[in-house]
Design a protein that fits this description.
Radius of gyration: 13 Å
Distance between the termini: 30 Å
Low-confidence stretches: none
Number of strands: 0
Number of helices: 4
Oligomer: single chain
Length: 77
């Protein structure tokens, strides 16, 4: 469990997971949740690239994963 928490604390990855989840919940449908999470994650990584940082696929995947969790909630509701 400590490995998971240390992984999420590195580079504020938990913020990407929570942010993707919130964006997905605010989309109000499962397909829009996935789409909006992918767009938000891509925009965040493009911003990182513009400021001369590396494109981080892990952060992108966590943002989309949060949106996927929100889409699953929308499918259940």
């Amino acid at each position: 469990m400590n490995k998971i928490f240390s992984f999420l604390k590195k580079s504020n990855r938990y913020k990407h997971l929570v942010g993707g989840f919130v964006v997905g919940l605010l989309a109000c449908s499962p397909w829009a949740a996935l789409y909006s999470a992918v767009v938000a994650a891509t925009c965040l990584e493009i911003k990182d690239k513009m400021y001369s940082n590396l494109y981080d696929w892990t952060d992108w995947s966590l943002s989309v994963g949060g949106g996927t969790l929100a889409a699953m909630i929308w499918l259940i509701l």
